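Write out C-alpha cells for Trehalose-6-phosphate synthase.
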Amino acid sequence: MAEGQRRLVAVSNRVGPLNDEGKAGGLAVGLSDALRRRGGLWFGWSGETSDEGTFKEAQTQVQGEVSMTTIDMTEEELEGFYYGYANRSLWPLLHYRLDLAHFDRQSERAYRSVNQRFAARLAPLIEDEDLVWVHDYHFFFLGSELRQSGFKGKIGFFLHIPFCPPEIFTALPASHDLVRAMLAYDVVGFQTDTDRRNFVGFCLRELGGEKLEGHRVRVGDRVVRADTFPIGIDAPGFERFAVSPEASEHEEMLREIAGDRLQIVGVDRMDYSKGLVERFRGFERLLEDYPENRGKVQFLQVAPLSRSELDAYVELRRELEELAGHINGRFATLDWTPIQIMTRGFTRRALAGIYRAARVCLVTPLRDGMNLVAKEFVAAQDPDDPGVLVLSRFAGARAELPDALIVNPYSTDDVARALQRALTMPFDERDRRWRAMREAVFAGPSSNWCDAFLGALENSGVD
Ligand code: ADP
Ligand code: G6P
C-alpha cells in the first residue's frame, strides 16, 4: 500500500489465489490482479464447510501486502445461499434466463442470513478510513448489513455479471428489497452502460427514484452513484505469461499436434451463459457449408467444470459431450478429430500458450458481464502472426473490442460465416484488427479498472 493511501478491503465469495494457478472465473482473476498491486484485506468464504459454518473462527493467510481472511459455511448455508439463491435464482435471472430461474423462500432466507453473518464477521476487522469494496451477486445485502452494524466509512459494490432489464428483474420476489439494499453503497459499479441503465431504470420505474447529475440516482433519502467501470486484465503481465517457458511448451505442443491445420480455441467455464452448445453447432455448420475446412481445422474447447452439483450444469455437460461425439462421428477421419473438449484446469501461463497457438478464438456467450478470455486472447498473440477473435455481441467486452468479428451467437449461420471469414482472413486485416484490439486492452478504460473504481469511491459524497 502506498503511503497516505486508504486500505482496500475487498469482499467476495471466492477469495484468492494470488498466484497463477487461478480457479477459472473472472472475479478471482480480476481481484487478485488488483490486490497484488495495491495490497489490503481480502475477505470471503474459505471454500470449506464445517458444522459451525459462519460462526467458526476465521482463518487468515498473509502473502506480501495482502491478508486473506476467510470463514466457513455450514452445508445448509452453502446449499441455500450459494447453490440456491446465488446460482439457481440470481445467476440465471441476471443473465436474462428467466426460464432457468427458481425462486423459493428458504434459499432467500439463507442468502440474507449469510450476508448478515459475513457482515457481522467483517465489521470488527474494518475501520471507517478503509475503502470497503464488495463484489458480485453473492453479496447484494452486505453493505446495508454493515451500515446497520454502525459502519460509517465508504462502501462500494461492483457487479461482475450483467444486470438484466427491469421487466425481467421484477420477477425476483425480493427485487425491491434487493435494489433498496444496494442503495446503502456509496458507489455501485457495472461492466457496461446497458447494465447501468437497467439498474437505474429499475430505481426510477419501480422505486420512484430520480436521476441526478454525475451518474447519481436518488431514491428517498439515499443518493448513490451508479456508474460503468469495465474490468480489464493485467495486460503487460499476461503478455509476459504468453512468452514464458510454460506457455511456449503448450504452444509448441499444440502447434505440433495441429501440423498444417488451423487451430480454433474456446476457453470458458462450463456454463450455460457461455453459448457452448450454440458454438458447437456453429462449428458443425462450418464443416457442412464450407467443406474445404474438413481435415484442415481443429477445434479445442477448454471447459473447466463449474457448479457441477446443479442440474442445469449436469444437463449442459451431457448435451455438450453428446454434441461433440455427434460432430466427431459425422466428420472425423482416421487421422483427424474435428473437435476436442477438455474439462481440466490450466495455469494461466499454459492458457496463454494455448491462445497463442490459435488462429481463431471463439468467445460467443449468450450473455456475459465482460469476458476476460477475449482480452487474454488479444494480449497473448504473437505480433508477427496474430489470431482473430470472434466475439458475441452479447459479451460486455464487445463495447471495447469492436475490431473483433462480432457475431450473434444464437445464429448458427452467423457463427459459421464468421469462422470462415476468420480462417481465411488475409494477414493485413488480421494485423490491423489485432493492433486496434491490443490498444484497447492495454490502454483503454478497462486497463485502469481498480483505480477508476476506488477513485470514484473515495470521491463519493464530495460535491
Ligand atoms: P467467467 O468469469 O464467467 O468465468 P471470464 O472470461 O470473465 O468468465 O473469466 C474466466 C477466467 O478464468 C479467465 O481469466 C480465464 O483465464 C480463467 N480460466 C478459464 N478457464 C480456465 C482453466 N481451464 N484453467 C484456469 N483458468 C481458467
Ligand atoms: C463468475 C462470477 C464469479 C464467480 C465465478 C466462478 O466469474 O462473476 O463471482 O466466482 O464465475 O463461479 P463459482 O460459482 O465457482 O464461484
